Amino acid sequence: MAENSIPKEAAFQIINDELMLDGNPRLNLASFVTTWMEPECDKLMMASINKNYVDMDEYPNRCVNIIAHLFNAPLGDSEAAVGVGTVGSSEAIMLAGLAFKRKWQNKRKEEGKPYDKPNIVTGANVQVCWEKFARYFEVELKEVKLREGYYVMDPEKAVEMVDENTICVAAILGSTLNGEFENVKLLNDLLVKKNQETGWDTPIHVDAASGGFIAPFIYPELEWDFRLPLVKSINVSGHKYGLVYAGVGWVIWRNKEDLPEELIFHINYLGSDQPTFTLNFSKGSSQIIAQYYQLIRLGYEGYRNVMENCRENMIVLKEGLEKTGRFNIVSKEDGVPLVAFSLNDNSCHNEFEISDMLRRFGWIVPAYTMPPDAQHVTVLRVVIREDFSRTLAERLVLDIQKVLHELDTLPSRINSKIAASIGENVDNGTLVTKPSDIEATRKIATYWRKYVLEKKKTNGVC
Ligand SMILES: *Cc1c(COP(=O)(O)O)cnc(C)c1O
């Protein structure tokens, strides 16, 4: 920190200049997080920027109430859903996980059984926050492996992995990797059966970070929420398809008993008795105001229109990519509106090169490898948000075609996939297994250039 202050104009200029170097958030197709809201809502957010969340009674409760209804929480004298606003789904998941862990421990203590080895069953496709929860709060994560062509948790395998130490099975409504909805209903039915056979009462949590604001509007018949008896808690990110800027998530418990009382703190130094169950005490309240704005401004009709529109733009993009004949689509039409795709096997390029080259057009499209046992599959992923129009979808297809064309005319590029497979022929039969080795890479590059030129001569393609 400098000894002296600087003029406010100078401080503003310095930071404003540097911010110009950040990518344009609206062209960042990697993120599910909202990048556009109506100006009226921006105004409300600015007006509440100096308010602390802990001083607000009404708005968080109203949002919890609306979202609990949206997720079909049972209503009645004996059952009443409870919930809290969080910074995002990660915090929501920490809280939900803690509730499951404490509930399981209490039961085990009562039964006089050991309670030191809790575990959670999930698919290997879980978002990193589950791994964080597991490590921070000392719960073993038992992951159901994926396989090529199947990128979500297999409910049968998940239920097989459940044992007496399982605090919950976490299903995902909208896998981060390909947007696919896991089959929560089948999971529920299989788990009901297993619980009957074993006498356990293993519950389900649904991580609906991205799907929680999609399914109720465009797949209302799909049973994934509190309509299923074993679903005890659900989280959703307000800042994804809840259509609010970054900084808000929600977790809803089916009823009071699903949230152990001992985790709730009661404070009275702000005026009235106030129950609190969050990791942080103070935080901004603008996002909560914005969430409330969206819920009352859009209603069912508005959310349905936005989600249907996203789905239509997803289909425009998907069909455009299919038409190139160069990609396999690994996302589903039903699910979170995104397109995940990999190059055909006979391609000479890889997905990372495409991602890299799209940056030149301003697009941020991530490429990543799938988790075990599908780690040999690489995909590119485009998330369709409210502000991604049909025009942009068509423009992106054109730019991808340009990139493919450019790659096709660049024979000197090393393709690691093919380079590795031809590695055996390099250096008089010495097997080159580490293309990261500089010497070896050079040899492969030389060989590859010759190989491509040969091939081009013979059949016009690499
Ligand atoms: C984004 C996401 C999360 C994490 O949510 P944040 O709101 O970013 O903390 C968790 N699970 C899934 C399935 C997600 O897509």
From TrEMBL:
Gene3D superfamilies: 3.90.1150.160, 4.10.280.50, Type I PLP-dependent aspartate aminotransferase-like (Major domain) (3.40.640.10). Its EC number is 4.1.1.15. GO terms for cellular component: cytosol. One of its GO terms (molecular function) is glutamate decarboxylase activity. Pfam families: Pyridoxal_deC (PF00282). Its cofactor is pyridoxal 5'-phosphate. It catalyses: L-glutamate + H(+) = 4-aminobutanoate + CO2. The keyword Lyase applies. The keyword Lyase applies. Keywords: Calmodulin-binding, Decarboxylase, Lyase, Pyridoxal phosphate. Signal peptide: none annotated. It is an enzyme of class 4 (lyase). One of its GO terms (biological process) is L-glutamate catabolic process. The modification N6-(pyridoxal phosphate)lysine is found at K240. PANTHER family: GLUTAMATE DECARBOXYLASE (PTHR43321), GLUTAMATE DECARBOXYLASE 1 (PTHR43321:SF34). Belongs to the group II decarboxylase family. NCBIfam families: Glu-decarb-GAD. This is Glutamate decarboxylase.
